[in-house]
């Protein structure tokens, strides 16, 4: 097994403008490693304009305040001239404030697009094809019969209806039925119970969110095309969005960190541009459900690394309890999102495809999200700091349903229920013999 742990990588300030100005080469290097396009020189030029415009406005405001104080002390006959001068100052200030507002909008837009710096241990690469395996567990089962894919098995057992799903929802619509519906809800209950026992706070969070929640968590502006929306109302693609916004604008107690949440929500993704991938079946759908781990911790890189390993291991243990062969990969730079410092994907073995498919993504962000969301705490020295954030899938369905059905299929078309789920499903076999 390859070692997957980070070496020490200290960055004291992440993505505030002072850090960016002082570390232009580092921002450029991180941008290139993520295979993203961002011109740090253009941002610095806009910041120079911002600082210049801000100084002009502040100087005019100072002049206005000084003139106002002087006016009160002038004799009546001298006031008219001073009032005229004040009016001109007011007009000049208004014009300069409008210029500043325009520059500030440009500056904020650029700041939202600055990629977070990936960890030095993130592999080089352009796409998920270059992710690096760091762990492998379980051997794929050698079936004594020709394996069926989840579509054939579930349709034969009246567990899914794609035709009526498409009629109702369009492309990739589906109805989950009978034992498959019970199995999916069993996975949710099992996951929520499991993480609650580990000290995570169970939460059911909104899927309908406002634009600022997605800006704060880093899904906008880059992910606009992948989201369902109506004006400034969006359907989130993960419960992480609502969970992160829960503490926005707050100062957390140091003694309460880390805060660990296990959140459940419906999720919605257009997956724009992927129309040709997994057209059939339940591997890639527009509407699905997730239990998500979300963690807020102290502003310390090594703590983030330890928690990243912990939440990844939480999900690996679950896969082992389910008896599903998997491997864990370290995502290369080109497969990281805007805010991620490092990410692992856990991928389950799919017998019908003869390959591993992603079920979990574990990421940490340092203070990339929390600066946007203004989530802070006062450390033991009394200094105000932004918390660090992490997240990882606990259970995503119906993708896990498909993995269980394919890996636990029997020759007669029935499906054995993983032992850990029997108390939730209330039976050891689902489906009926087909031959």
Summarize the structure.
This protein is an alpha+beta fold and 435 residues long.
Rg (C-alpha, Å) = 27 Å
**Beta-strand percent range:** 15-25%
Helical percent range?
Answer: 25-40%
Mean pLDDT: 92
**Number of helical elements:** 13
Q: Which sheet architecture does the biggest sheet show?
A: 8 strands, mixed
Number of strands: 18
Q: Gap between N and C termini, in Å?
A: 42 Å
Outline the secondary-structure elements.
Blueprint: H1 17-22, H2 24-33, H3 40-71, H4 76-111, E1 132-137, H5 150-156, E2 160-161, H6 162-169, E3 175-176, H7 178-197, E4 201-204, E5 208-210, H8 211-217, E6 228-230, E7 233-235, H9 240-245, E8 251-252, E9 259-268, E10 287-297, H10 301-322, E11 326-330, E12 342-350, E13 355-364, H11 368-373, E14 376-378, E15 384-386, E16 388-397, H12 399-407, E17 415-416, H13 422-425, E18 429-430
Helix pairs in contact: 3-4, 5-12
What does this structure look like?
By secondary structure, the protein is of the alpha+beta class. Helices cover 40% and strands 21% of the residues. The chain has an 8-stranded mixed β-sheet with strand order 1-11-12-13-16-10-9-4. A 3-stranded antiparallel β-sheet has the order 5-7-6. Helix 3 runs antiparallel to helix 4 (76-111) and helix 5 (150-156) packs across helix 12. The chain is elongated. The chain starts with 16 loop residues before the first helix and ends in a 5-residue tail after the last strand. 38% of the residues are buried.
